[in-house]
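Weekly modeling sync, notes
Attendees: S.R. (lead), two postdocs, one rotation student

Agenda item 3: backlog of single-chain predictions. S.R. asked that every request posted to the team notebook include the full sequence so nobody has to chase files. The rotation student volunteered to paste the first one in as an example of the format we agreed on. Action items at the bottom.

Example entry:
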Amino acid sequence: MEQQPLTASLLKQSLLFFAASIPAWLLAASAGADPALLVYRCAIAESASTETISGEEILARQPEKVRRALGKRGFSSPAALATSEVECQGFIQAIVVFEQPRQKTLELLAQTHRQMEFLPNLRNVRSVARHENESLDHHEIKIIFTKLEYRVRNHWSHEEWTMWWHLEPGYANDMASLDGYWRFYELADGGTVAIYASRIDVGPYLPASLQASLSRKKLEESLRHFRSWVNSGGSYRP
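Predicted structure, as returned to the notebook:
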Protein backbone atom coordinates (compact mmCIF):
# COMPACT_ATOMS: atom_id res chain seq x y z
CA MET A 1 0.00 0.00 0.00
CA GLU A 2 1.31 3.46 -0.88
CA GLN A 3 2.27 5.50 2.17
CA GLN A 4 0.20 8.65 2.53
CA PRO A 5 2.01 11.98 2.97
CA LEU A 6 2.02 13.56 6.43
CA THR A 7 -0.60 16.26 6.04
CA ALA A 8 -1.14 19.18 8.40
CA SER A 9 -4.21 17.40 9.75
CA LEU A 10 -2.29 14.21 10.51
CA LEU A 11 0.49 16.24 12.12
CA LYS A 12 -1.99 17.92 14.44
CA GLN A 13 -3.50 14.54 15.35
CA SER A 14 -0.03 13.26 16.23
CA LEU A 15 0.69 16.27 18.40
CA LEU A 16 -2.63 15.86 20.18
CA PHE A 17 -1.78 12.23 20.91
CA PHE A 18 1.39 13.29 22.75
CA ALA A 19 0.02 16.46 24.37
CA ALA A 20 -3.74 16.43 24.58
CA SER A 21 -3.88 19.48 26.83
CA ILE A 22 -2.22 21.82 24.29
CA PRO A 23 -4.65 24.53 23.17
CA ALA A 24 -5.87 24.61 19.58
CA TRP A 25 -4.38 28.05 18.94
CA LEU A 26 -0.89 26.71 19.68
CA LEU A 27 -1.35 23.67 17.49
CA ALA A 28 -2.54 25.84 14.65
CA ALA A 29 0.65 27.91 14.96
CA SER A 30 2.89 24.85 15.10
CA ALA A 31 4.54 23.33 12.05
CA GLY A 32 7.36 20.80 12.01
CA ALA A 33 9.77 20.71 14.94
CA ASP A 34 8.55 23.78 16.77
CA PRO A 35 10.65 24.64 19.86
CA ALA A 36 7.71 26.59 21.30
CA LEU A 37 5.66 23.39 21.35
CA LEU A 38 8.42 21.46 23.11
CA VAL A 39 8.92 24.04 25.88
CA TYR A 40 5.16 24.38 26.34
CA ARG A 41 4.86 20.60 26.74
CA CYS A 42 7.58 20.70 29.40
CA ALA A 43 5.80 23.46 31.32
CA ILE A 44 2.56 21.44 31.32
CA ALA A 45 4.27 18.12 32.12
CA GLU A 46 6.34 19.43 35.03
CA SER A 47 3.73 21.40 36.95
CA ALA A 48 0.16 21.12 38.20
CA SER A 49 -2.88 22.72 36.62
CA THR A 50 -2.97 26.48 37.16
CA GLU A 51 -6.78 26.37 37.44
CA THR A 52 -7.34 23.52 39.91
CA ILE A 53 -4.28 23.93 42.15
CA SER A 54 -3.74 26.95 44.40
CA GLY A 55 -0.48 28.64 45.25
CA GLU A 56 -0.88 27.42 48.82
CA GLU A 57 -1.01 23.82 47.61
CA ILE A 58 2.15 24.30 45.55
CA LEU A 59 3.95 25.68 48.61
CA ALA A 60 2.68 22.86 50.84
CA ARG A 61 4.28 20.30 48.52
CA GLN A 62 7.75 21.76 49.05
CA PRO A 63 10.28 20.38 51.55
CA GLU A 64 10.85 22.34 54.75
CA LYS A 65 14.18 23.66 53.43
CA VAL A 66 12.48 25.18 50.36
CA ARG A 67 9.68 26.70 52.46
CA ARG A 68 12.24 28.31 54.78
CA ALA A 69 14.06 29.85 51.82
CA LEU A 70 10.78 31.16 50.43
CA GLY A 71 9.90 32.72 53.77
CA LYS A 72 13.32 34.33 54.08
CA ARG A 73 13.94 35.70 50.57
CA GLY A 74 10.85 34.94 48.48
CA PHE A 75 12.42 32.39 46.13
CA SER A 76 14.12 29.01 46.24
CA SER A 77 16.24 27.05 43.78
CA PRO A 78 16.27 24.17 43.26
CA ALA A 79 12.62 23.54 43.96
CA ALA A 80 10.99 20.16 44.56
CA LEU A 81 9.96 19.55 40.97
CA ALA A 82 10.60 16.47 38.85
CA THR A 83 9.82 15.17 35.40
CA SER A 84 9.58 11.85 33.61
CA GLU A 85 9.71 13.56 30.20
CA VAL A 86 13.09 12.91 28.55
CA GLU A 87 12.86 16.11 26.47
CA CYS A 88 12.27 18.14 29.63
CA GLN A 89 15.33 17.07 31.59
CA GLY A 90 18.16 19.51 32.22
CA PHE A 91 16.08 22.47 33.41
CA ILE A 92 17.23 24.36 36.51
CA GLN A 93 14.03 24.89 38.46
CA ALA A 94 12.88 27.32 41.12
CA ILE A 95 9.84 28.73 42.91
CA VAL A 96 9.23 32.46 43.39
CA VAL A 97 6.59 34.16 45.52
CA PHE A 98 5.48 37.52 44.09
CA GLU A 99 3.50 40.12 46.02
CA GLN A 100 1.58 41.16 42.90
CA PRO A 101 -1.66 39.44 41.75
CA ARG A 102 -1.31 36.78 39.07
CA GLN A 103 -2.70 38.98 36.28
CA LYS A 104 -0.30 41.84 37.07
CA THR A 105 2.65 39.46 37.46
CA LEU A 106 2.13 37.97 34.02
CA GLU A 107 1.52 41.39 32.44
CA LEU A 108 4.82 42.68 33.81
CA LEU A 109 6.90 39.63 32.89
CA ALA A 110 5.41 39.69 29.38
CA GLN A 111 7.12 43.08 28.87
CA THR A 112 10.22 41.17 27.84
CA HIS A 113 11.82 44.14 26.10
CA ARG A 114 12.26 45.80 29.53
CA GLN A 115 14.50 43.10 31.01
CA MET A 116 17.62 45.24 30.67
CA GLU A 117 16.10 47.60 33.27
CA PHE A 118 16.67 45.06 36.04
CA LEU A 119 18.99 42.29 34.76
CA PRO A 120 22.57 43.65 34.95
CA ASN A 121 24.05 40.79 32.90
CA LEU A 122 22.18 41.97 29.80
CA ARG A 123 24.22 44.45 27.75
CA ASN A 124 21.30 45.29 25.48
CA VAL A 125 17.75 44.17 24.69
CA ARG A 126 16.03 45.34 21.53
CA SER A 127 12.44 44.57 20.62
CA VAL A 128 12.26 43.07 17.12
CA ALA A 129 8.53 42.24 17.05
CA ARG A 130 5.66 42.24 19.53
CA HIS A 131 2.12 40.84 19.26
CA GLU A 132 -0.76 40.12 21.63
CA ASN A 133 0.64 36.86 23.03
CA GLU A 134 4.16 36.79 21.63
CA SER A 135 7.34 38.84 21.35
CA LEU A 136 10.75 38.58 19.70
CA ASP A 137 13.74 40.30 21.32
CA HIS A 138 17.40 40.67 20.35
CA HIS A 139 19.74 40.14 23.32
CA GLU A 140 23.39 40.98 23.88
CA ILE A 141 25.33 39.66 26.88
CA LYS A 142 28.99 39.45 27.83
CA ILE A 143 30.46 36.27 29.29
CA ILE A 144 34.03 36.69 30.50
CA PHE A 145 35.48 38.67 27.57
CA THR A 146 33.12 37.43 24.87
CA LYS A 147 30.01 39.24 23.62
CA LEU A 148 27.16 36.93 22.63
CA GLU A 149 24.15 37.93 20.55
CA TYR A 150 20.97 35.92 20.14
CA ARG A 151 17.22 36.28 19.65
CA VAL A 152 14.57 35.00 22.05
CA ARG A 153 10.95 34.36 21.10
CA ASN A 154 8.58 34.63 24.06
CA HIS A 155 5.01 33.31 24.33
CA TRP A 156 2.37 33.74 27.04
CA SER A 157 -1.16 32.56 27.71
CA HIS A 158 -3.63 34.03 30.19
CA GLU A 159 -5.80 30.94 29.71
CA GLU A 160 -3.01 28.60 30.83
CA TRP A 161 -1.26 31.16 33.08
CA THR A 162 2.00 30.16 31.47
CA MET A 163 4.89 31.97 29.82
CA TRP A 164 7.60 30.19 27.83
CA TRP A 165 10.53 31.12 25.59
CA HIS A 166 13.20 29.69 23.29
CA LEU A 167 15.88 30.78 20.81
CA GLU A 168 14.54 32.06 17.51
CA PRO A 169 14.90 29.27 14.91
CA GLY A 170 16.79 30.25 11.79
CA TYR A 171 18.71 33.11 13.42
CA ALA A 172 22.50 32.89 13.81
CA ASN A 173 22.37 32.71 17.61
CA ASP A 174 25.66 32.67 19.52
CA MET A 175 23.95 30.53 22.18
CA ALA A 176 23.74 26.77 21.61
CA SER A 177 20.39 26.63 23.41
CA LEU A 178 18.21 28.73 25.70
CA ASP A 179 14.66 27.96 26.79
CA GLY A 180 12.44 28.09 29.83
CA TYR A 181 9.04 28.85 31.29
CA TRP A 182 6.98 30.40 34.11
CA ARG A 183 3.77 28.88 35.55
CA PHE A 184 1.61 31.12 37.76
CA TYR A 185 -0.64 30.12 40.70
CA GLU A 186 -2.91 32.37 42.77
CA LEU A 187 -2.49 32.92 46.50
CA ALA A 188 -5.46 33.73 48.72
CA ASP A 189 -3.73 36.90 49.98
CA GLY A 190 -3.57 38.30 46.44
CA GLY A 191 0.00 37.26 45.71
CA THR A 192 1.35 34.77 43.19
CA VAL A 193 3.41 31.59 43.37
CA ALA A 194 5.41 31.05 40.19
CA ILE A 195 7.26 27.94 39.08
CA TYR A 196 10.30 28.89 37.00
CA ALA A 197 12.59 26.75 34.88
CA SER A 198 15.45 27.55 32.52
CA ARG A 199 17.94 25.61 30.44
CA ILE A 200 20.96 27.37 28.92
CA ASP A 201 23.95 26.20 26.91
CA VAL A 202 26.37 28.86 25.69
CA GLY A 203 28.20 26.31 23.56
CA PRO A 204 32.01 26.26 23.28
CA TYR A 205 32.54 29.57 25.08
CA LEU A 206 32.62 27.94 28.54
CA PRO A 207 33.52 24.44 29.81
CA ALA A 208 30.45 22.48 30.91
CA SER A 209 31.46 22.37 34.60
CA LEU A 210 32.06 26.13 34.80
CA GLN A 211 28.89 26.81 32.85
CA ALA A 212 26.78 24.78 35.30
CA SER A 213 28.26 26.61 38.30
CA LEU A 214 27.72 30.04 36.75
CA SER A 215 24.19 29.14 35.66
CA ARG A 216 23.09 28.36 39.21
CA LYS A 217 24.79 31.46 40.61
CA LYS A 218 23.28 33.70 37.95
CA LEU A 219 19.87 32.08 38.42
CA GLU A 220 19.65 33.16 42.05
CA GLU A 221 20.78 36.67 41.17
CA SER A 222 18.26 36.87 38.30
CA LEU A 223 15.38 35.57 40.44
CA ARG A 224 16.09 38.22 43.06
CA HIS A 225 15.97 40.94 40.38
CA PHE A 226 12.83 39.48 38.75
CA ARG A 227 11.04 39.40 42.11
CA SER A 228 12.07 42.94 43.09
CA TRP A 229 11.06 44.32 39.70
CA VAL A 230 7.62 42.67 39.69
CA ASN A 231 6.93 43.54 43.33
CA SER A 232 7.72 47.19 42.60
CA GLY A 233 5.34 47.26 39.63
CA GLY A 234 8.27 47.73 37.24
CA SER A 235 10.00 50.65 38.98
CA TYR A 236 12.85 48.69 40.62
CA ARG A 237 16.41 49.28 39.34
CA PRO A 238 19.38 47.36 40.76
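Discussion: group reviewed the output briefly. Residues 6 and 12 are 10 Å apart (CA to CA).
Action items: rotation student to repeat for the remaining queue; S.R. to check formatting next week.
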